[in-house]
Amino acid sequence: MFHCAIAAALAGTLLAHPVPAADTQLSDRAPALILVAGPPPAPKRSFEDLTPEEKMQRRYPQPVKVGDLIGLPLLDYEDRTLGHVKGVVRTPDGKIKLIVSCGGFLGIGDRPIAVPIEVVAIAARQLAALDMTRAQLDATPTWDKAQGKPIPPSEMIRIALYKR
């Protein structure tokens, strides 16, 4: 019985409970083994079904100084520059967002937008927009300074790694 209980526990799907047989005397009760099914294993989710936070955790986030992110270009999949990081903020709900100048031409007519840190990754001296397209960036509303508090340049945050 001991080996069965260990095997069931190691399998992770069955729990063993020794129960005395009902028709036996107290002195000769031999424990019976009742197997109870545990919860079914969680279905495997594809990478596309993960939340942005779960995707970021799979990209080995590393510490970086906020000041080192300022001025870095944000690139799309074709290595086109979408904008440059102007600041890093923390929203009231604790999320970190990069403030990126987007649109315009040579800095004229651009507008600041907030890009969640979970959808970008750092690769050397540039950032890659991994889970946000140019169309999504263009549709993002203009950032309002009242929506978050700037993070000091000396503070360390975590950002995902990316290799092309």
Quick synopsis:
The chain is α+β, with helices and mostly antiparallel strands and 164 residues long. It folds into two domains: 2-37, no CATH class; 52-161, SH3 type barrels (Roll), CATH 2.30.30. The protein has helices spanning 2-11, 52-58, 66-69, 134-139; strands at 14-20, 31-37, 62-65, 73-75, 81-90, 96-102, 111-116, 120-123, 126-129, 149-150, 156-161.
General description of the model:
The protein has 164 residues and is an alpha+beta fold. It has two domains: 2-37, no CATH class; 52-161, Roll (SH3 type barrels), CATH 2.30.30. The protein has four helices and eleven strands, in the order αββαβαββββββαββ. It has helices at residues 2-11, 52-58, 66-69, 134-139; strands at 14-20, 31-37, 62-65, 73-75, 81-90, 96-102, 111-116, 120-123, 126-129, 149-150, 156-161. The radius of gyration is 27 Å and the shape is elongated. The N and C termini lie far apart (54 Å).
Main features:
11 strands; 37% strand; 16% helix; elongated; alpha+beta; 164 residues
Write the layout of secondary structure elements.
Layout lengths: L1 H10 L2 E7 L10 E7 L14 H7 L3 E4 H4 L3 E3 L5 E10 L5 E7 L8 E6 L3 E4 L2 E4 L4 H6 L9 E2 L5 E6 L3
Parallel strand pairs: 4-9, 8-11
Antiparallel strand pairs: 1-2, 3-11, 4-5, 5-6, 5-10, 6-7, 8-9
Uncertain residue ranges: 1-17
CATH fold annotation of the largest domain: SH3 type barrels
Radius of gyration (CA) equals: 27 Å
Reported for the largest beta sheet, the result is: 9 strands, mixed
Q: Give the helix/strand class.
A: alpha+beta
How much strand content do the residues show? 35-45%
- Number of spatially distinct domains: 2
CATH class identity of the largest domain? Mainly Beta
* Rounded average pLDDT: 78
CATH superfamily of the largest domain: PRC-barrel domain
What is the number of beta strands? 11
Distance between the termini: 54 Å
Helical residue percent band: 10-25%
> Could you spell the SSE succession in H and E letters?
HEEHEHEEEEEEHEE
Count of discrete alpha- or pi-helical segments spanning 4 or more residues? 4
CATH architecture of the largest domain: Roll
Shape: elongated
